[in-house]
Amino acid sequence: MVTHVPAEAQGDERGALLSFVEAQRGAVRRSVLGLTEEQAASRPSASELSLSGLLKHVAETELNWLRMAQQQPNEKERNEETWPDSFRLVGDESIPGILAFWEKVAKETEEFIGSVPSLDDTFPLPEAPWFPKDGAVSMRWLLLHLVEEIGRHAGHADIIRESLDGKGAFDLVAEEQGGSWG
Fold first, then answer.
1. Smaller CB count within 10 Å for the chain: N or C?
2. Are 153 and 51 within 8 A, CB to CB?
């Protein structure tokens, strides 16, 4: 981990978990720092992944989990036909637009988690081959899953960014703070 996640206030489990989610969000956001739209859309490895595609995918994935927890329809729900579009910018989508969208999702996630009576509260999982039948998970599980999901893609983003221009996570943290590392 290249950024320090502050210790929670005594007994502030929600705050601690949200801080770890935000740390992973920051890693993905920093991956596009200083890049053009074309650079961020490039795929410098055998993978189909690009930085701008990862940014969009992670933002939409957080929204999807938030809507499941809220038990509301997902306005960006994907199906088998539109799934590939969750990994690439289409039409007039841009990095600033995706970042603004994700900022709204992140704020809504934090407000929602702050409003639930308990992190032990649960919500049902949808029917899918990868979920248990009639499964449910807690709000705590949701936050831990977001750390896992976003962190996995932050690792992908690290490799892609290093392949583009050699900048690693430490370099990007320093650049974001107006300095240099090493």
1. C
2. no
